[in-house]
Design a protein that fits this description.
The protein has 311 residues and is of the alpha/beta class. It has 2 domains: 1-78; 86-305, 3-Layer(aba) Sandwich (Rossmann fold). The protein has 8 helices and 7 strands. The strands form 2 sheets. The chain has a 5-stranded parallel sheet, sandwiched between helices. The longest helix has 76 residues, at 2-77. The protein starts with a helix and ends in a 14-residue tail after the last helix.
Length: 311
């Protein structure tokens, strides 16, 4: 029994020894393989990383080049500069700018920009004491034409000085000379691609002793309306609109809109002055308001430039 057990123990020992050796061999192989695998992985990672960095750099450069091309294309396609529309005002002292701000007189054209958007230029060519005839004879109309551009607008309002028969330099009768000048104005403006608005004169503050308003410019207002209809251009009935307003508020309240200066304040008027033709700042603002409201009421193209109708 004892002799038979030794071979069995030896076999077991040898089997364990070979198994242990196999484990060591396998472990060494795995370790070596692990090292090689790690080296391969590292090499593969570095290779892929370089490829990624190069690809990202190329993509960034391509993106910048594409943006540059788009920017260049955008600058090429940018719309050309367009000159802002200009509204030219032509008329007499009731419309003109008054540079001496210490004196209360204002023209309604001077207050008009307060109602309009800033993207329209307003050039006031109106001048004190001018009629249609005198405006032409002094070369003022030619100056306006030289300043006129296609797409501009011109508002023409005369009458107060045209009716002064005692002054040959200004007088233009309402039957012939006055409408002839207006017709010529329309032709000149339209020949340059601009648009005309004819406006009748604003109302004078003349009341009878009974408090009834006297409408002293009807002949010129009617002539202006007739020319506008014949020439097929817009007409703003400023005489009717402003006279209706004064008649409605009455003689006492209408004083608030015209020049009333006391004595011993202005050297030019040592005795003071009651002026029923020319406007103070309130009157000028009111006439400008009436004008812009009529633009809106008639849906005139200039209405889109109206910012507000109250100050």
């Amino acid at each position: 029994m004892k002799n038979s057990s030794k071979p069995t123990t030896g076999k077991i020992f040898n089997a364990l020894r070979y198994s242990f050796a196999s484990i060591i061999a396998v472990s060494s192989t795995l370790a070596l393989a692990g090292q090689e695998s790690t080296s391969v992985l590292q090499s593969s990672y570095v290779s892929h990383l370089s490829t990624f960095v190069l690809a990202s750099s190329n993509a960034h450069i391509a993106k910048e080049q594409s943006a540059g091309i788009a920017e260049n294309e955008g600058s090429v396609k940018a719309p050309p500069y367009e000159k802002p529309v200009t509204l030219h005002l032509v008329g007499d002292s009731t419309m003109s700018d008054k540079p001496m701000l210490s004196y209360p007189e204002r023209g309604w054209g001077q207050l008009l920009p307060e109602f309009m958007l800033p993207n329209i230029n307003i050039k006031n060519h109106a001048a004190n004491g001018r009629s249609t005839k005198r405006f032409v004879d002094e070369g003022r109309w030619q100056v306006l034409l030289s300043d006129l551009s296609e797409g501009d607008f011109v508002v023409i309002q005369f009458g107060h000085n045209d009716q002064k028969q005692s002054d040959p330099a200004r007088y233009a009768d309402p039957e012939n000379a006055y409408p002839a000048y207006l017709k010529q104005f329309v032709q000149d403006v339209e020949a340059r691609g601009a648009s005309v608005i004819i406006a009748s004169s604003i109302c004078r503050r003349h009341f009878t002793e009974e408090g009834v308003l006297k409408r002293t410019l009807l002949a010129y207002a009617d002539a202006a309306k007739k020319v506008a209809l014949q020439a097929n251009v817009p007409f703003i009935p400023m005489n009717t609109l402003t006279c209706d307003f004064l008649a409605q508020i009455g003689e006492p309240k209408s004083n608030h809109y015209f020049i009333k200066v006391p004595a011993d304040l202005y050297t030019r008027y040592p005795e003071g002055k009651n002026d029923d033709t020319h406007l103070n700042v309130v009157g000028a603002a009111k006439m400008a308001q009436i004008f812009v409201r009529e633009l809106k009421a008639t849906a005139h193209p200039l209405a889109k430039y109206v910012y507000r109708d109250t100050l």
